[in-house]
Structures are given as C-alpha cells and as structure tokens.
Amino acid sequence: MHLFDKFTAGLPLPAFLAKYGTDGDRAKWGRAHEQTTITDVQRQLLGKFTRRTNVLVLVGAWCGDCASQCPIFERFAEAAPAIVTHYLDRDEHADVQAALRINGGNRVPVAVFFSEDGHEVARYGERTLAKYRQLASQLVGESCATGLVKGNDPLQLQIVQDWLNEFERVQWMLRLSPRLRKIHAD
User: Tell me, which fold does domain 4-184 have in CATH?
Assistant: First the structure.
C-alpha cells in the first residue's frame, strides 16, 4: 500500500469531526482547540516554512490523546500555509491502521508526513516524549487521556514544542532535499 494514496481519502479536521464525531467529541475537540496556543516565536518559525508538507493523521474522534494533540497540528497549519493536514478514521481504514501499528498495537494519533509529490518523509505518534515522561512518573492512571487541555499547562506547552520539533525537522528535510531543490531551482 502506498500511504499517500490515503491522503486524499482523509478529511480536513472540521469535516472529519462532522462525519465521525459525536456532539460530545466535537465539544471536547473544540475546547482543546480553544486552549491550544503557540508562542510568537513558534508562530514566526512556522511562518518560515516554504515546502508544502502533507500530513496524514490517523485518529479516532473518541480518542482523548487525539483531541488534545491534533488541535496542535491545526494551530501549526494556521501559522504555516505550507502545512496541509488530512485526518483518517482509524476504525474505518483498517489497512492503514495495520500499516501504522506502534509496538505491535493500534495507536492514535499517528502522523505521516509527505512531500508535496507524495513521498513519505517521516512518521510520528502516538504520544510525545513529554507525555511519556509524565505518564512514566505516574506509573498508574487512565489508559486513555480525557482530552482535557489547559492552555498554560507546562506539560501541554512541552507537547506543543515536541510536535513542533518534528514538524520543523520534516520541513528541513523537505527544504534541503536535493530532489526538491532541483524541482524548485533553489
């Protein structure tokens, strides 16, 4: 399977939530989006992204980790028009779910980054290092996050930064790619 073929089957976030989310899911994602912020420094960095970055995100509308992390991607896309996100429902696309297993299990969210012409660049998910550090320090608790986001929570701010680091890494991979530099004559 060529994963980029699934990119066009994915939906922009509002359409995804309209199709797959319950009223409660949409409310949870909406609250998370309202609480998700990026700093001026992060916004300036994102504003310098020049290479189109197609991001296919495997998600579940019901998933708390997805509700708390995917609005981060939308904030990035607002600041960087070169970022295009499409969301794919994990349960409806079992073939993609199987291809993107992490540690032998079905996990979400998983982001797959593609170049403008459909070459896979990177995969990242399901949780960031900051989140795993926090979970490890607790050793107990819920197996699925609630999706509740506090905009000024230090953990959430670090999760935003962890994701931004991956988006930036992908942008540099695309920007410095000899193949794409030849296409763009830069």
Answer: Glutaredoxin (3.40.30)
